[in-house]
Design brief:
single chain; mainly beta; SH3 type barrels; 6-stranded antiparallel β-sheet; two-stranded antiparallel ribbon
């Protein structure tokens, strides 16, 4: 079970975009995440007339390492660490600071 999943709100704790907050768009296999609006890079895009795609310089999100982000705790309005424990025979994620469940079901 991963501690950070798609559609989680995270905050960047290290690097060029420190302090920015965004939603996880994609989780990659090599401990990297793509976060909306974070780690923006400029890509030189070649035009593709068959797909009706214009060329030029476009902004896109680059992957960021999972160690540089922390999950955002809305109750405390701060970044927090995530733990995993067993409840009712299933694994659940919880915030380490206050013990509340991350995704109550």
């Amino acid at each position: 079970m991963r501690k950070i999943r798609r559609e989680d709100q995270v905050i960047v704790i290290a690097g060029r975009d420190k302090g920015k907050r965004g939603e996880v768009v994609r989780v990659l296999d090599d401990d990297r995440l793509v976060v909306a609006g974070v780690n923006m890079v400029k890509k030189h895009q070649r035009a593709n007339p068959q797909a009706n795609q214009q060329g030029g310089i476009v902004d896109q999100e680059a992957p960021i390492h999972v160690s540089n982000v922390a999950i955002y705790n809305e109750e405390s309005d701060r970044p927090d660490r995530v733990g995993i424990r067993m409840e009712d025979g299933r694994r659940v994620r919880y915030f380490k600071s206050d013990g509340s469940l991350l995704d109550p079901e």
